[in-house]
Structure formats: structure tokens, C-alpha cells
Design a protein that fits this description.
139 residues, mainly alpha, 62% helix, single chain, Arc Repressor Mutant, subunit A
């Protein structure tokens, strides 16, 4: 294995490339990656800011008090998300937009794993999950 790059190199590189490509694709449709992630959580049912923060915690800035609420404002203004006293929910307009965006995101995901079998993808994800748990991740 002399000369091979360590896993950290590949993790950071793939993460950066996914972020860049995702930003290109999703921003063409008027949303950010965080907004997309929040729409995905809310599509499963209404949620509080605390639930949303928890669901996307690995993606929120560390060392700062970043909250999902900061990313929801535009979605509420665009009438994609409604807000009640305690929770956020998708509007009909938001559900239509989320469905359209889901198709675009699925195309990106498919191109990312092109040439890999379903088994190879499963093993990769399971390996990364095990490493995260070995390093203290608890969900």
C-alpha cells in the first residue's frame, strides 16, 4: 500500500467535489444545499427548529451558533414552507418544488456512484458509518 493516499484525503476530496457539484446543480433551482436538506426533513412531516437542527447537525457550522432557522427564511418567503407557532411544514408549492428537485438530486447521486455495484456502495457506506462510530459518533 506504499504510495496510496490515506482515507482522509479521499474523504475530504469526495466531500468537496460533492459539495461543489451539488451547489452548481441545486443553486440553479434557487435553493442552497442546507435548504435542500431542510426541505427533505420537512417532507417527512412537520418539524420544529430543534428537530431540524438535530437532523442536519453534521452540516451546520461548528463553533458558531448556526441554526436551521437561518436557512428557512427564504423558503417561508417563497411559500415553500409554512411556519406555525412551533413547527415548519411544506406547502403545496413546496411539495411540488421538492419533487422536482428530488429528480435533479437523484441524477447527481446516480452519477456519483456510477460504475459501482449496489453492494460496493453498501459496503462503502457501512465502512464509513463504522469509522464514524469508532470515532465517537452517536445518533
Amino acid at each position: 500500500m506504499a504510495g496510496t493516499r490515506p482515507i482522509g484525503f479521499w474523504l475530504k476530496l469526495v466531500d468537496r467535489l460533492i459539495d461543489e457539484r451539488f451547489a452548481e446543480i441545486i443553486e440553479e433551482h434557487g435553493v442552497t444545499r442546507r435548504q435542500w436538506q431542510l426541505l427533505g426533513v420537512i417532507a417527512g412531516g412537520s418539524a420544529t427548529v430543534e428537530q431540524l437542527d438535530s437532523a442536519i447537525a453534521p452540516f451546520l457550522g461548528t463553533g458558531v451558533s448556526e441554526s436551521s432557522a437561518e436557512h428557512l427564511g427564504e423558503l417561508v418567503e417563497s411559500d415553500w414552507v409554512s411556519i406555525s407557532d412551533t413547527s415548519y411544514a411544506l406547502t403545496e408549492r413546496g411539495r411540488i418544488a421538492f419533487t422536482r428537485l428530488s429528480e435533479v438530486v437523484e441524477e447527481l447521486r446516480a452519477s456519483t456512484s456510477e460504475g459501482l455495484s449496489a453492494e460496493e456502495c453498501d459496503v462503502t457506506v457501512a465502512s464509513l458509518e463504522r469509522m464514524a462510530r469508532n470515532l465517537g459518533f452517536v445518533d
